[in-house]
C-alpha cells in the first residue's frame, strides 16, 4: 500500500525519511527499519510519490535518488550518512552504531564510503537518469 502525505498531518511527525522505494536494496533496508521503529517517530516517504515534499525542502529529484534524505522535527535536512545517523539514533539497539558513526575519523570515512556507494548505485539504476 502506498501512503500519501495527505493522510498525515506532517507537522505532528517528528522525522520524515525520503527514500527510493524503486531501489530493492533501499526498500529492504527501510522496510527493516519500519519493522523495528517506534510508532509515531518516522514518516516513511517514497520520493517517487512525494513531489510536494521534495519541493518544500528544495530537494532536486536527482539528489533524492542519489542519497537518503531525512527532515527532523525542527525542519533540519539531513543527507546520506547523516540521515542514517538520525534514523539509528531513534531505533532501539542502534544508538551505539549511531554514536560510533559520529566519531570524527569514522564519520569522515563513513561519509566518503557512503558517497561512493550512492554514486555507484545511482549510476547502475536506469530510472535514476533524470534531468
SSE order and pairing:
Layout: E1 15-19, H1 24-36, E2 42-46, H2 51-56, H3 61-66, E3 69-71, E4 77-79, H4 81-88, H5 95-101, H6 104-124
Parallel strand pairs: 1-2
Antiparallel strand pairs: 1-3, 3-4
Helix pairs in contact: 4-5
Short description:
The chain has helices spanning 24-36, 51-56, 61-66, 81-88, 95-101, 104-124; strands at 15-19, 42-46, 69-71, 77-79. It has 131 residues and is α+β, with helices and mostly antiparallel strands.
Report the average pLDDT across residues.
85
CATH class: Alpha Beta
Order the strands across the largest sheet as they lie in space.
2-1-3-4
Helix content: 40-55%
Q: What is the CA–CA distance across the termini?
A: 28 Å
Major sheet summary line: 4 strands, mixed
Distinct helical segment count: 6
What does this protein structure show overall?
By secondary structure, the chain is an alpha+beta fold. The model has no long low-confidence stretch (mean pLDDT 85). It has a four-stranded mixed sheet with strand order 2-1-3-4. It has a single domain, classed as Glutaredoxin (3-Layer(aba) Sandwich). 47% of the residues lie in helices and 12% in strands. Helix 4 packs antiparallel against helix 5. It contains six helices and four strands; from the N terminus they run E-H-E-H-H-E-E-H-H-H.
Amino acid at each position: 500500500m502506498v501512503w500519501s502525505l495527505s493522510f498525515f498531518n506532517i507537522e505532528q511527525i517528528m522525522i520524515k525519511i525520503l527514500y527510493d522505494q524503486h531501489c530493492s536494496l533501499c526498500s529492504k533496508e527501510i522496510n527493516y527499519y519500519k519493522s523495528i521503529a517506534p510508532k509515531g517517530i518516522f514518516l516513511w516517504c517514497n520520493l517517487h510519490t512525494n513531489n510536494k515534499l521534495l519541493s518544500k525542502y528544495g530537494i532536486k529529484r536527482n539528489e533524492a535518488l542519489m542519497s537518503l534524505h531525512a527532515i527532523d522535527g525542527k525542519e533540519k535536512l539531513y543527507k546520506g550518512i547523516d540521515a542514517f545517523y538520525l534514523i539509528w539514533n531513534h531505533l532501539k539497539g542502534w544508538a551505539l552504531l549511531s554514536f560510533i558513526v559520529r566519531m570524527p575519523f569514522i564519520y569522515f570515512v563513513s561519509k566518503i564510503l557512503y558517497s561512493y556507494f550512492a554514486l555507484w548505485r545511482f549510476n547502475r539504476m536506469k530510472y535514476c537518469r533524470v534531468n
